[in-house]
């Protein structure tokens, strides 16, 4: 139901600092004219007026332009009775009750505005005042015997008549009955201008980089007065009155605190101390704003991935290098969920980029590898990425990657950590909740650390450290009530907001490979390009091999999925699929481990076919797969330099010609295919394994197109 308002032309409404008065009110709404700007009007419907009255920047002043209201406001310290201190407010309300009681009795003829009439009706006036205030014996709250009951003495007739006249002229507003004690006191200057100037010097004396105490500043100010008086006496002038130490201290306490702190400690320290804090940006959707930062862990650990620490002798343990790892963290501001985490040796752009890459991936397999019970499924497209001005985040590589993804980058100025309050708060939570549980912690500072032997107690390897961090974040932090979420857990907040708004889609595979892949060059071949023993081809590569004078192309690969890569032909990027089927979703670590297992079993110079490699990958133990997943979050992950260095170990191409060309039909029985090893040339050496009979041996021998190196 639409509510209809009634306004008087003497009313006033202010909204967003604009004052308006009603000109005309109709059934559909009202026309308002701006105060001080005749002819400029605005029209509001009654629904819009109702919404306007609920806004925090809207104020309504009934009868604002009436003469009585103006008299009531004139010279008053407040605009409403409730703004007064309780003691003065009770006095003003008692005076109002006295005036109301007098007017009521006057209308009934029990009292009049003469001294004799007031004296005759004084008793009835006292009873009426008590009734209006609820202080009669019937309405008064029962008290224990002996309790003091305070009653106010009625004013004299002259004073009462003055109150009533002011009360009537102000339109029966209690504001005119407020005691004028705020205007009492000696307002004349106590000190001459020269004394005022000397007294103000105490502020400059105290606001000094040497940081004197207030007592020292006051003594120095008194000395200034004495020196000035001595000069005046010598000149035959009148001496100044020296203020007391208490007066000088009061003047010092009236100084601008920001100015004093900036002069004593510097402008940057003052800006940090007197920062105006807020609730931060208003975010509604998951991953609408992601804050990312690096922090050095408050724990000394062993800088190794080994998990055999407990089995080593003490002299071997002492040789292990220990130190503090850096931690990259990305957190979603809307749900407070951690969407990325990675250990690093030092702050660097490569690890920052890898941490950014994890935001777009479901990290549940990594959490399961650490033994977590909850899933780490939080991922999606990013709206705004907020980082500090660290060298890793302002580097060309990181900023280029962010720009390639179409993500808005926000880099607040250095030295203002509250502009990234969510991630800073998480690091503080990590330091208070998790670090006290770890041996070898370094505490927040050397004072808190005391004599704690952090180096001697260091026993956590990188795999132990990443497992502990994953367990805390995935199983504990995501499932405990969060204060800024009003007691809701981050996991629950993620589920609720995703159900309401969804998440932005992650970039496509080609965009991810172009953004996060490092440029590698490969030579054009008849079957495309080779990377890690696999060959990749597409129509653009075949066309370039036939007609392009440029015989090298740029490629970018995702080491988590080597089933296809991105290749740049001319100025355009194309997806190139592996010629050997079955490698979709296979990681670089799994391929390298499978090749290592095959070469360990068979002779080194063998040509290996794709089914053999795939069967070897399937035989990789679950423990190794978990180790690969955890190692990806540590400084021991596969780097671009490792990929290039390991090309020599993977220079044997993985053959799949027979199956790809249809000479061998794939079998569902892995034992039926056997393990086929193709030697370079026939040899009868007893150390070589027996080669199974080839059912296609009578066919014409095909010339081998495969090269024995990977462009090296």
TrEMBL record:
Integrase catalytic domain: from which residue to which, for each copy? 277-498
Q: Where is the signal peptide?
A: none
Q: Which SUPFAM superfamilies match?
A: Ribonuclease H-like (SSF53098)
Task: Name the domain of life.
Answer: Bacteria
Coiled-coil ranges from the UniProt annotation: none
Residue ranges of region Disordered? 663-712
What is the recorded name of this protein?
Mu transposase C-terminal domain-containing protein
């Amino acid at each position: 139901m639409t509510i209809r308002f009634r306004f008087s032309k003497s009313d006033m409404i202010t909204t967003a600092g604009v004052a308006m008065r009603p000109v005309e009110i109709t059934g559909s709404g009202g026309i308002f004219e701006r105060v001080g700007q005749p002819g400029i009007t605005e029209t509001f419907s009654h629904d819009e007026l109702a919404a306007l009255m609920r806004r925090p920047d809207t104020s309504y002043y009934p009868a604002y332009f009436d003469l009585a209201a103006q008299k009531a406001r004139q010279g008053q310290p407040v605009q409403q009775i409730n703004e007064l201190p309780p003691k003065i407010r009770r006095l003003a309300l008692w005076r109002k009750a006295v005036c109301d009681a007098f007017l009521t009795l006057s209308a009934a003829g029990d009292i009049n505005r003469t001294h004799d009439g007031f004296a005759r009706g004084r008793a009835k006036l006292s009873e009426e005042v008590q009734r209006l205030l609820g202080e009669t014996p019937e309405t008064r709250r029962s008290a224990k015997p002996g309790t003091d009951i305070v009653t106010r003495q009625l004013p004299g007739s002259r004073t009462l008549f003055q109150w009533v006249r002011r009360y009537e002229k102000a339109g029966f507003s209690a504001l005119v009955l407020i005691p004028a004690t705020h205007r009492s006191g000696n307002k004349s200057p106590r000190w001459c201008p020269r004394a005022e100037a000397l007294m103000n010097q105490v502020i400059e004396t105290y606001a000094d980089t040497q940081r004197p105490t207030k007592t020292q500043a006051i003594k120095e100010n008194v000395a200034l007065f004495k020196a000035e008086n001595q000069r005046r006496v010598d000149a035959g002038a009148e001496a100044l009155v020296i203020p007391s130490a208490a007066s000088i201290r009061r003047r010092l306490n009236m100084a601008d605190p920001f100015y004093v702190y900036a002069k004593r400690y510097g402008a940057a320290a003052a800006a940090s101390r007197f920062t105006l804090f807020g609730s931060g940006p208003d975010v509604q959707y998951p991953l609408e704003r992601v804050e990312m930062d690096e922090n050095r862990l408050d724990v000394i650990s062993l800088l190794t991935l080994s998990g055999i620490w407990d089995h080593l002798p003490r002299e071997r343990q002492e040789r292990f290098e220990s130190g503090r790892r850096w931690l990259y963290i990305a957190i979603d501001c809307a749900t407070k969920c951690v969407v990325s985490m990675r250990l690093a040796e030092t702050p660097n752009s490569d690890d920052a980029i890898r941490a950014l890459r994890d935001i777009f991936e479901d990290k549940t397999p990594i959490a399961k590898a650490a033994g977590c019970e909850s899933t780490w499924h939080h991922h999606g497209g990013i709206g705004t990425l907020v980082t500090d001005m660290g060298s890793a985040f302002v580097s060309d590589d990181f900023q280029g990657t962010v720009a390639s993804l179409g993500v808005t980058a926000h880099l607040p100025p250095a030295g203002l950590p509250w502009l990234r309050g969510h991630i800073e708060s998480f690091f503080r939570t990590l330091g208070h909740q998790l670090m006290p549980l770890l041996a070898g912690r370094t505490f927040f500072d050397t004072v808190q650390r005391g004599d704690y032997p952090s180096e001697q107690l260091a026993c956590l390897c990188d795999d132990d450290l990443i497992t502990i961090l994953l367990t805390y974040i995935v199983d504990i932090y995501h499932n405990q009530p969060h204060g800024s979420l009003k007691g809701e857990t981050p996991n629950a907040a993620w589920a609720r907001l995703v159900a309401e708004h969804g998440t932005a889609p992650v970039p496509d595979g080609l965009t991810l490979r172009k953004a996060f892949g490092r440029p590698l060059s490969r030579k054009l071949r008849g079957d495309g390009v080779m990377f890690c023993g696999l060959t990749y081809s597409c129509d653009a590569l075949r066309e370039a091999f036939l007609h392009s004078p440029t015989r090298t192309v740029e490629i970018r690969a995702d080491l988590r999925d080597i089933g296809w890569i991105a290749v740049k032909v001319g100025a355009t990027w194309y997806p190139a699929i592996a010629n050997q089927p079955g490698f979709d979703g296979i990681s670089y670590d799994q391929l390298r481990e499978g090749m290592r297992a095959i070469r360990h079993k068979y002779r080194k110079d063998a040509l290996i076919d794709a089914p053999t490699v795939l069967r070897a990958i399937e035989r990789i133990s679950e423990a190794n797969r978990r180790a690969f997943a955890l190692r990806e979050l540590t400084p021991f992950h596969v780097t671009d330099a490792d990929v290039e260095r390991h090309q020599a170990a993977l220079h044997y191409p993985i053959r799949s010609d027979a199956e790809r060309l249809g000479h061998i039909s794939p079998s569902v029985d892995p034992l039926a295919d056997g393990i086929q090893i193709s030697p370079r040339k026939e040899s009868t050496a007893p150390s070589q394994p027996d080669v199974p009979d080839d059912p296609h041996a009578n066919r014409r021998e095909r010339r081998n197109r495969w090269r024995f190196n990977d462009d090296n």
